[in-house]
Design goal:
It is a single chain. It is built from 8 helices and 9 strands. By secondary structure, it is α/β, with parallel strands linked by helices. The chain starts with a strand and ends with a helix.
């Protein structure tokens, strides 16, 4: 399997790269980031390619060539609620929504394999019903993330061979920090998930197929426990 990892220098992206490099069914990895990444230890240079983009909504023809024949992608680029609030709705939408759809189009233009599975890492608070009357300062953020999910599914439906699903983790944390993270998250009403569990579940779905959409925080944890 040839896997594309978008946002490979981030907290989650690094763990995806680490696990993917050891996965017996993943034979080729393409990372997408704004700075170059070295091939993981044990991965032959010919089976790894680091694609550098100026931003995640900008893809050169060279980048598209690297995507050719890919079987799947895990998209990790997005914003946490605090970052969204700091950037504002216009820039927040560009980073989370516009870039995701631009990336999907770039992949579609590159002649990927069929089926091609796209796993979008969303968030626990996402709301797909765009007519929902939400309260609180994060109402716009929640609707925006749900809108990305909607349009990822719509894109897949319009492109033969594309399959898509969204995962909705809560606060992602290292296993050693789980208890402290749970206490912090409880005050915000967020669920928590261990980084390694979140990643192993996403990899399993991209490699073996999607059984449902969206996939909740607890469902990700349960799936990781069964692998």
């Amino acid at each position: 399997m040839k896997l594309i990892i978008v946002g490979a220098t981030g907290f989650v992206g690094k763990e995806i790269l680490s696990q993917a490099s050891k996965h017996p069914k993943i034979t080729s990895i393409v990372t997408v980031s704004r700075s170059a990444i070295a091939a993981p230890e044990g991965v032959a240079a010919g089976k790894f390619e680091s694609v550098v983009v100026s931003d995640y909504d900008q893809y050169t023809e060279e980048a598209k060539k690297a995507f050719a024949g890919a079987n799947g992608c895990i998209w990790t680029v997005g914003l946490t609620p605090p970052k969204y609030m700091a950037l504002g709705p216009e820039e927040g939408k560009r980073v989370s929504y516009t870039a995701t759809l631009a990336g999907l189009q770039a992949i579609a233009d590159s002649s990927p394999a069929k089926p091609f599975r796209f796993c979008y890492m969303s968030g626990d608070a996402a709301v797909r019903d765009q007519s929902a009357k939400l309260e609180g300062e994060l109402a716009g953020f929640r609707l925006m993330r749900g809108d990305v999910e909607n349009d990822v599914l719509a894109f897949a439906a319009k492109h033969a061979g594309f399959e898509a699903a969204s995962v909705r983790p809560g606060l992602i944390t290292e296993r050693a920090k789980l208890e402290a993270s749970r206490e912090f998250a409880k005050g915000h009403g967020w669920p928590t998930i261990v980084l390694e569990d979140c990643v192993s579940a996403m990899l399993h779905m991209v490699v073996n197929g999607f059984e449902k959409d969206p996939v909740s925080n607890d469902e990700l944890t349960a799936l990781a426990g069964r692998i």
